[in-house]
UniProtKB/TrEMBL annotation:
GO cellular component, one term: cytoplasm
Record's keyword terms, sorted: Metal-binding, Zinc
UniProt key word Zinc: yes
Domain BAR: 11-100
InterPro entries: ACAP1/2/3-like, AH/BAR_dom_sf, BAR_dom
Keyword Translocase included in the entry's annotation: no
One example GO MF annotation: GTPase activator activity
Domain of life: Eukaryota
Protein name stated in the entry: BAR domain-containing protein
Amino acid sequence: IAQMAAAFIKLEDSPMFQKEVRSLEQNADDLRDRCQKLYKGCRKYTDVLGEACNGDLGFAETLEAFGGGLDDLLGVSIGGPILSKFINALRELATYKEFLRSQ
């Protein structure tokens, strides 16, 4: 054992230390790759949230023009009050999506 200790004057020279360093470097590389993928996924998700928000608002406007008004007799006859509730829900969802996107 004394000969072995003499062979490695510095801890950095030992095979076990070198093996541990390589393992830690590999883990760091793997973690960096995962973080980069997560970052790209988050960016893509925020872009899609913006598009989804715009789509919800556009669809809500279209539904409102179709028959969501409460003062339009034809709109009321085709379910305007129910459409109005759905339109409000779409707008609320769009608000939440915009909030998520802005974070």
